[in-house]
Design goal:
By secondary structure, the protein is mainly α. It has three domains: 115 residues, no CATH class; 99 residues; 87 residues. Helix content is 82%, strand content 0%.
Length: 331
Amino acid sequence: MKKNKNKKVISNELISNDTFLTLYIHFLYKFIGRRLLLIKKFKTFFYKNIYNKKYENILKKANMKILPEEYFMSIYITITFFIIFIFVVSISFIFINSIYSILIFYGGILLLMGFGIFIYNYPIIISRDRGKEIDASLPYLLPYMQILAKEVNLTKIIEIIDEFLIYKEIKIEFRKIKYYYSFLGYDIHSSIREAMSSCPSRDLADIMNDLVAISNSGGNIYSYLSRKLENLNDEIVAIEKKNIDTLLIFSQIYVVILLISPLFFTIMSSVLNMVEFSTNEATTNPNSVNSTIILIVGLLMLLPIAYGLFMILIYYTRPLYSRLKPLKNEN
């Protein structure tokens, strides 16, 4: 019963994790792309000039449940529709205003180029972000694996990790391992190698492949994880030291620009107004007073925004591992 429940959870995680983009790509490929590929000349053109085989592994690393054929076909169809739309709108505006027509045409071309570059590199961006998050999760994963390695074997470590609190992207990679040996019947070592071939984190892939080699040779997994954890702790100490130095610089900027400068400006404005008032007595220019009040009020309105932006900057300056939130197990 428990095994069936685990299979259901793995299946839901690996198969039904669809986003709007994934559904959109599936839709275009199913109703338009497949029909286009039935045309022999277009099929030859598509695989020679548009299709990129290396994206199969990139899409796996990005955890996108789509095939390279689907992805590149959807890009081709979307860009084609967009070109037709730009052309039709530009032609329509020729009869209204030729300048608008030219602006729409060239603006649309620039927008299309930007969209093409972004969508082509989107899986690469996602896979890199996943890799960074997995690397940031390793300081929390390795101590847990080290404790488990003292008592249980590699297969049990993989199973236990998925049962407890873990971080989202690492959870996905470990569920890939469980998918290979629970559904496809691979042994645990082959499952790890197969899953790690599409892992976006080189550090995690190296660690898991080392564990396979140590397990095959009968080595001590606990000692290996202890050494890796020591090296990782040294790296964390260096990162924290660098982060403290950065925060010291930011704190000096904060004090000078956001604390001292507004206070200095307010005091100087008040002093100058008093001097002007005492010089001109009753003939004080009301416009200068009003402008000063407006500047001070504007400054008071802008300061909270500046403080908020500074807090956001400080938050994102912190190392990623200190900003990760654990994903609670849904079992």
